[in-house]
Amino acid sequence: MRKSIAILLAFALLVTVAFAGCKKGEDEAAQDVSVDEQVGDVELGFEDVEVTDENGEAVTDANGEAVTEEVAVEYAKDKDGKTKAYVLDSSGNRKKDKDGNDVTIKSDTAEQMDKTTTKKSESGTKKDDSGKESTKETKTTESTTATTEKSAGTTNPELTTKSSYVPTPSVHESGDPVVFSAEDQQIIKQMLEVPYLYTASYDNGSVPISIASHTAIWMAQRTGLSASTYASGTVVLDLFKYYGQTVVNFKSKCNSEGDCENIVYNANSDTFTIAAFEDSTHEVTLTGFEDLGGNNFYKVTGTVSGAKGVKTVTAVVQKNKLDNSLGFSIKALEWK
């Protein structure tokens, strides 16, 4: 079954950054640079594609079903104005075929995006059930909602599909109590213990750049590599996986709003330099889990120690397949 999750990535045009890094005057990366990005509106997502052998034939499993794999894609318009799904490599760059052309795949989501755009231009602004104007596009998105008994964990291979946009619940909403598996609890605990994550909250809004910078370092550390330079596409894609949404303007604002000395965006090479990984700053003890329904959303609560003045955390998490080793995205956060 094809699954895709598309999130708007709207980077600012011609942004001049006052600092080349949070760490000033120590190396070349910390010199003043001008970030001249004309990225435009880009949406990232994931698509399931059939696996083929060396002869181009579809690979099947023991039951004769086609084997699929999930690939990252960028939804963007081609020269004719039609939305295409461009396959991305592990660095977040478009893959090329042997002739040097961008690799694209057939995508129902891309077609739906064009239909939605057409409908908008014909009918104007829609209104939601409350009568307020809404500009959200209707997309076919994956729901990972699992039927979870109160004595069961949340890891369920059965997936359902939502045919319309499902908004992220607020951290103030309540649901039915559930029990997470020990493995899922450990993953969420680690995600909530990203260094300095406790310094900012967000609820149905943009992810603060100040905590995204620390998250980017943590995601890079998880790779186990000792590299200090990372392709910008890799960093942006990792943030998309962690938060389940694009961290808007992260490249252009990292150096000025990142509030972190250990990560620098290098405009001249379109890379990030990570000077050092960060030590633990706080500890989270999970105390409750609630099923919020929708698109496999769960409310997680916990106590916090070691954070300056912060005693509790409430998070809305979504179980998904954006990052197979995590299995969740942190969709909303409130620290108190």
Unreliable spans: 1-41, 120-152, 155-164
Structural class by SSE content:
alpha+beta
- Topology order in helix (H) and strand (E) letters: EEEEEEEHEEEEEHHEHHEEEEEE
Strands in their spatial order, largest beta sheet: 1-4-5-6-7
Mean pLDDT value: 77
Name the beta content range.
25-35%
- Structure annotation, total helices: 5
Measured between the Cα atoms of the first and last residue, the distance is 41 Å
Largest sheet data: 5 strands, antiparallel
Total count of strands: 19
How much helicity do the residues have? 10-25%
Shape designation: globular
Radius of gyration from the CA trace?
21 Å
What does this structure look like?
The protein is α+β, with helices and mostly antiparallel strands and 336 residues long. Mean pLDDT is 77; it is low at 1-41, 120-152 and 155-164. Helix 3 crosses helix 4 and helix 3 (209-222) packs across helix 5. The protein contains five helices and 19 strands. Strand 17 and strand 18 (312-319) form a beta hairpin. It has a five-stranded antiparallel β-sheet with strand order 1-4-5-6-7, with helices on one face. The chain has a five-stranded antiparallel β-sheet with strand order 12-16-17-18-19. Strands 13-15-14 form a three-stranded antiparallel β-sheet. It has helices at residues 108-123, 182-192, 209-222, 232-243, 250-257; strands spanning 7-10, 15-16, 34-35, 41-50, 68-77, 83-87, 104-105, 126-127, 133-134, 141-143, 160-162, 176-177, 229-231, 263-266, 271-274, 283-293, 297-305, 312-319, 328-335. The relative contact order is 0.17.
